[in-house]
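=== RUN LOG ===
request id: a7f3
mode: sequence -> structure
chains: 1
length: 1308
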Amino acid sequence: MRKEKIMRFFLAAVLAISMLAMPLTTASTGTESFPDASSSSGAASSPDVSSSSEAASSPDVSSSSGAAFSPDVSFSSGAASSPNVSSSSGAASSPDVSSSSGAASSSGASSSSETVSSDVSSSSGSADTASAATAADTVNLAQGKGNDAFTLEMEGAGTDLDPATKDTTIREKEESILNRLTDGYYGSGEILDGNWNGSGMRSHYYEAYRQIDRAITLDLGQLSHIESLSFHMQEGLGWGISAPSMVTYFLSEDGVTFHRVGRVSRFDAVKDEDPDHYYSVVENGKEVNCQSYYFTLDGLNYNARYVKVAFELTGTWAFADELEVRGTAAPSDTAETLPDTPGTDYEVVNKYAWTDQARGIQHEALAYAGHWFSSAGGALQTSQKTVEELLPMVGYVDEEGNITDKFFESVTFLSHGYTPNLDTPDDDTDYHNLIYVSSTMTSNPNAAQMCATAEDWQTYLDFLFHYGEGTGTAYNLDALNEAVALVKEATGDADYKVGVKIAFYPPILCQDAFGTLPGGTHSLNFADSDTNPAQQALADRMEASRWYLDTVIREFKAKGYENLRLDGFYWYDEVMHYDVDPLVLETVQGVTDYVHSLENGAYQIYWIPFYQSSGFRAWKTFGFDYAIMQPNYAFDANASEQRIADTAALCKKYGLGIEMEFGGINDKYISQFRSYLTQGADDKLAYQNNSLIAWYTGTWGIAETSQNVSGTRYIYDAMHDFFSGIPTEMEKPVKNLAAAGTLTLEADNVKNTEEFNKLLQALPKLVDGNEKAGAWNDSYVKINANHAQGPFTLTADLGGIGQVERVALGSVSNPGWGIGAPDSVSYSVSQDGQTWKELGTVTYAQAEISPGSANGFETVEYVLKLDAAEKARYIRAEFGHGLDASKDPAAPYTWLGVDEFTVNGTAPLASGEGIASMGTITLESGNVLNSESFANLQNVASVLLNNGVLQTGSWANQNTLNGDYIGVLQTVATEPFTLQISFDTVAEVQALGVDYLAWVSAGIGAPDKVTYSASLDGKSWTELGTVAQADARRYEAIATGMDAYHFVLETGAPVRVKYLKAEFERGFNTDKNTKFGWVAFDEFTVEGALTSEQPAPVFNEVDSATGIRVAAGLDTVPAGAHLKVEPVDAGDAAYASVARAFRNENVDLAAFDISLLLDGGTVQPRGVLNVAFPLPQGFDAAKTQLYHVSPEGEKELLTAKTADGLLNAELTHLSLYVLAQPKAGAESGGSSSSAPSGGTSSSSADTSSSSGTPSGGAGGASSGTAAPAPGMPQTGDAFPLVWVTVAAAACVVLLAVLAWKKNRETRA
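=== RESULT ===
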């Protein structure tokens, strides 16, 4: 029996082994499917990547222009760019209902020490409760409520686009995700994982972006007994996410009348200590984290159906993941009556702030003077005001600077927010901030070192009152005093004075070492901390504030300005930092009270918060005399023109004024500024004549536009019209394209060549912009019929193809003097000067006729407006002398006077057509300073610089795939720069160029020169030439303030290349005596033809005996190597391999052992060889095939092409190759069955499949079939089949033995 058991065990083992060895015939042939670990394929959208309105991407604050963005657009609202965090955290752990860390202590109106046990067991990422409850039988009544149970209210319109996706409005987005507050899911805090509409952690949060406040109402569905309320919110200050300063709860029985039942402040909220709800990451060596707080209100005893939770955004973003309503789903007989409490703390006035609040002043000009940084980097600079800059602000001047009227009667002096760090006098890039900057100071243990000190405050005041003293030149307040004196003299108003307000810089909440003031006893500490209690911090803040205010007044009086009046102060910070400063209200009120106490109320103080800034509705509570809000439409990429109306509505509702914002001299800012002015008209938003207005015009906007910089004088005039109460459309003067072109005049009948040549010399009068008034002594081009008679052809060559929208020719008529206007003028256009298209004819009857300035004269303008723009380089006007119908027969008038020839439309631009789009662009720098930013530029450059789009003049979205320009800032990378374009095949190039932007006022300059080189291999370069800026093709005014320089190099004869490169540096700014901070370019153009050829090979040898040629590109064959070819015949050692390979085939063969000899040995190529085999005598090109034969006699069919009696192949290995064709009358030996596994099965010598290129093995072509995974049995494998056979045989034998043994035992 024991032996039998052993035998049975052995049998089972054999069977098991045989089963394991069976082929896995049902295994999937595809790749194993894994969970998508990176389910959010897009870049994680940070909650505050570009949310602040501060930073228009324009380099308006660059070193060359100094157009510094003021604090009006430099929001310190906690906005900060965050990294693209792509880690996937998975489901966040929920509060552990069985641990003490999951139950938060309550806080708020009434506190309870009870802990809560959840009625729902916790699972991954979900929990029914995270806050304290009041009784074991209560439930979370909010759990599971959907979006239809919610109502969302926000003070802002919510019409801006969501900054993360830009495909839905803020309001629409938030209304779609309210149910996340009741899904029982508590997030991990990793809010940068994914996006709000994706699948990452961020998709579990409700998120609110700007728009002042939120009121979220939840309908519980029935009257219920409510015992506690809790709102779980996040705070990630480094990413612009702030917990609100206060969460207010309301209850209602009917959804109409709500009663406030309690509030929980940020500083009373309970921090969530659960580590599963905390996320931290290190950015730039600094920890940035997201933590959570419970805003919990306990001890309630009310019946209600509707719950409203309201909060005001104190930062850019607010995040929340859960709202809990603890109670029972039925009313209680012992519930208290809902309290009679107000629903709002803000006064609604429905009237703009007006002059009665500002002592008769309606318009306030902002004059920026102080230390500032260019966006292009570099040293701290100063913008000091001069008489010349301030004169057009306080006096309305003409283009020559002559004063014609008064202008602004009140000016606020303010800085750019910086002072030099006096502790590092040798470092001109080191500075201190004059206000709190959330993005860099929040949670920063070294923040105090970034803040202004007492010395810094004094530095600013010295700059304001004493800069330039002793130099003989007046600056800042001294300059303003002199400018007003000039206005007084010009207008004859001896009593005229201009009011002045000086910026006040709030004590910075994190400054703990401000310094000791004169007469003080200790260094002041503004920070509320464990070592410096709130009472002391507030006292120190007030001591510093009083000193600053007193010093301003004392200094101003000491100057004895005759033409200025100190009216008060401007609160410089644009946001109230409720989220980080528990003393903000007391601090502001303390300052405003002190200002009003000085000299019996002689001074005022006002505030200009940014759009929807935290605290703007409470401006009166803070004690300001008035407030004016910034729309920020000019600087917020997510805002539409609707932003102006939204701002006006808020300003009117809460009694604020509105700010006009001119961002700088470019078309985008100008277009937006036009909307500010036009929308204010009485028949629109009505703030022009009914509201206090502050004017942000950058640092030099008023001065530059008054001087017509870049043709912007019309903007200055529009400002004055608006200021004067006159409606304005701020229309831009139309540019005459013909003025930048070349004029020619032809006559059908020239009678006096000398006099006609004089006419030709006078042609510039037709485009001089001086439209004649209809008096013959004006400088018309006068054509006497005795000198020349028509028809005349006047042609304007624009120099390039532009867009023509309107043409006009002016003339004059006075028949009594023998002067007649043409009977008609006909217009036509052409792109090449040969083929013309008629646009139309304007008759005298259709012309625009006006009385002239002299008796008997009239001006006649033949205007043709096109329905659609026409592309043209040449514009032609055909006309003749007018006919005097009083004569019989009619005869021409003696004189023909021609006025302006006007062509309106779009100026010609450089062409992006050519072959550049067929190449690949790369950008390199010899000195990369910010590798991450430069890598982005390289990626964008590869797409933008050969897309055929150039000279748009649109700086918006620069350095993005949605933009037009690559702009390299000196803090990102510096010269030398190299742009390279590479082609797959040889190009025959006739011209090439790079197009650059020159926007001098913004610190962007074209290079001084560009050097071009060419190469066939990308390694050996030949210089083609250098183009200096003076020789570049300049395109003026492609947009306001912008010119383009196309550095085109014409090669003459075509140049064969595969690679082209342009090398350049930043241009030199002669005005600043330094290089421009930016270099910007938008296209690499290449004119020529792309061939199908490759460059001539560097290695090219032919075996004289066999005629076999081997060619290769540079660096493919080691230097010094030579070709060796040995024919392989019967009897040669290698012939045995050939015979073995073709042992079963009836073919003609020609075998060759090909090698490269170097230093007595053989070498293999490092790349692809082009090998050409002459066809042997009697071989048919259509039947001949090429094989590689291994030493073991294995053959591999290769792909080859026949041409001109040669069989051509690309090989990566040299050894034994065979040409074979079937013998006459025999079947082809080139069938796929003879090809080794992995080789091509084609039998055609003409196939062009790249799979025939040998790769890896000895001349073998790579196969498209994937190799099996190691150790994976395959269907048909021989090894497992043998095992099965052996196992089956063993089973049969064993069974027979067992049967025999059993039979013997039975017999026994």
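=== NOTES ===
The two ends are 15 Å apart (CA to CA).
The first strand starts at residue 139 and ends at 140.
=== END ===
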